[in-house]
Structures are given as C-alpha cells and as structure tokens.
C-alpha cells in the first residue's frame, strides 16, 4: 500500500465518495476501504487513491487497511452487524495507532429508540467512546438525497407528488455532498473535534409542502405533497421497493420519530467546519435535476 494517512470506508457510497472527492481536492493522501477490487476501485486508483479490500467481518482485513493511517471514517449501511463492525474497526484503529475516527451515526440514535438500527447506532457510538480512540460522531437529519434516490425520484416526477408519511413534520434537508465535505475536513484536521457529537442540518427547516413548492419552482412543474399513512408507506417499501425487513422496520419507526420532531432543527455546523454553507433544497434540486427530468 502507498503512504496514505486517511482511510475512508464506504468509499463508493454517497458520503464516503463525497469525502474522497473533497480530500483529493485538498491534496490529501487517501486510502479507500472497499469490499471488492472492481472497476470502481480501478476508477479510484486512477485518481491516485490507494485501495484496501475487505469488509467489516474480518478484523485482520481492517487492521491491514489501518496500517500507517492517522484518521479513519467509519460508515456502516442500515443493516444488521454495525455493533460488531464498530468494535472491530475501533480495535484495529487502536492497534494501528490511529489518532482520530469520524463515525457516521444518525439523528435518531439514542438508547430508547424503537428503531433497531438507530439503537444500534447509539450503541456503536458508545463502543467507539470506550475504545479510547478519539471519535467524532455525526448525526445527520434526513438527507436531501432522499428526494433524488431513484426509487423516490422517479415516482415523484411521474406522479408530481411527494408521498411520504411525515405529516406536517419539519427538517432542514442535508445533502450527502455537504456531509462528505464535513467528513473530509474532520479527517484532515481532527484537532478540537475529539469526542464531539455534531448534528448535521441544511440551512432552512421546511415541511414537505414547502419542499414540494421549492422543487416545483426549480423543475418548472407543479409538485405537491400528498402525505400517506405510515402503514401505507410500509406496504410500499415491502411490496414495491422490496426493501429488506431490517430497513423497513427502521424507516417505519423513524417516520414516527419525524412526526414527533426528532429530525427538526437547523444549524451552521457545515459552514463552521468547512467554511462553506450547506446547500439549500432549491440548490440541491438544481444540482441534481437530472434525477427527475
């Protein structure tokens, strides 16, 4: 392996990929931790990114990927296994002398969460804290990217409706681009962020009626918010989207959390850490209008 000193897991995902983009632009030496050495790995190599192959079930793979690393990003999908993955990652980091970890959690992470995934994220935060390796936890609200995910974007554009079960709840959508920039800056300059928990929000808190209006203006077509019941959304996730049961259980519970205000709020954390404000919903939709039209 090369003399990279920053490790990014989830490197072909949205936040990991955005973090690598920012780190490369900053001139940092980056190593990507990937599950397979495929064309996506080859594309990263062409950009000067070092590649380590493995997953979160083999501590020896993780330990090898940590060699020479100073700071590392931990990202686990919303799927079973995050607690053991966090323990392996933390132990490997400790053995390798890694000085800083950035951990992707979620805003609903708490001990009493009824979402198995959110509760597991909270436990994983504690695992990193127990490890003694200085860790910064990120707790983003709902991603702006939800609107542009292929499952949802195609349906929104076809029906000209946003059919989510969020009632009149509010949040300030945060893009994965902005999260990636935060991750990159924390990895590159971790001093002062040790042990911190940062909630990540976009710049403006909105309900989905306001989000639909912003989308309408940018896309030049009238889009409305047509709230559904949580049970209707659950059936759609199971029957139409074919989401795995663990993910469905999580999304059902966080839909209720959203209605209760757990995803609400806004702040300027993105700007304070990166020096650049977070994208607004209109700016995000304009940037990714190709997902809709």
From TrEMBL:
It comes from Bradyrhizobium cytisi. Residues 3-257 form the NmrA-like domain. This is NAD(P)H-binding protein. CDD domains: NmrA_TMR_like_1_SDR_a. InterPro entries: Ergot_Alk_Oxidoreductase, NAD(P)-bd_dom_sf, NmrA-like. It comes from the Bacteria. Pfam families: NmrA (PF05368).
